[in-house]
Amino acid sequence: MIKAISIAETNYPGITKITAEGWDGQVLRMSYATCCKWIASSAQLQQAGVYMLYADHFDRITHGNQLYVGQSGAIEKRLGQHDGKKDFWTAVMVFSSAGDWMNVAYTVNIERQFINWAKYANRYDLDNGNGGRVEHLGQEDQARLQSFLAGVPLVLRLAGIDVFEPNMDGTFSFTFDKKVTSHLKITTGSPAPAVTIVAGSRISGLNQAKVSQASLNGVTYDPEKQIHTFHESVDVTLEGPDIMRKLFDHPVSSWKSRSGISLMATLNALYPAV
Fold this sequence. Notes:
Elements: E1 5-9, E2 16-20, E3 25-31, H1 32-39, E4 49-54, H2 60-63, E5 66-72, H3 75-82, E6 91-97, H4 104-121, E7 125-126, H5 139-158, E8 171-176, E9 180-187, E10 194-197, E11 202-204, H6 208-214, E12 219-222, E13 227-230, E14 236-239, H7 241-247, H8 263-270
Parallel strand pairs: 5-7
Antiparallel strand pairs: 1-2, 2-3, 3-6, 4-5, 4-6, 8-9, 9-10, 10-14, 11-13, 12-13
Helix pairs in contact: 1-3
């Protein structure tokens, strides 16, 4: 298990390299401006790899929080093609092997896994048009791929990089009859999660009898429109997914993140034993 990482400056100004003992991979991290200079120089990485273009602002809500995952057998050439075409990115990370074993068959599978992780994290707006594809690998190659992937989340976590960390402030939305959209989010809980309905949400399709039994504060009901309105300044927290199932007549899977991942799938991923 990875217990420590190394973050060091490279010979190229502005690029840092992240490595870890026992992990046969490396991550190069740099700003957009540095990347543009790097790919135009003779010092670029001449091997296959996977990259992320993302917005690394101090305030992602105001300035945008998009992320794009890509891969290539010639990483520097592919990065150069994005210059001027994707205007949201301020930073880039390049993932490659520490040894010279990574090729496009690996990078295609790594790209697909990164896209999937980013969707479940619910932290960035993915700029990818699809979920990637799978390339066949033999048994030994598959084992090497899984070993590489197993180290990535921990290496990034130790480096303080949150692209794959679950976003507990990320919302899930449900639109009823194309008119009323409401929002909720998962609140950290152990061993079971809590689900918080965001203040100001208006929800159609709740069972009034169940709402009354749950004794929820700050909730008003319009019987004519059959809409429950949650107080604009008070979030309402429901402990555990069972309460969600008991309260809502529509399935929990109807609530989706911006990446299209259902609330149920996310709960199962974060709390598989619940």
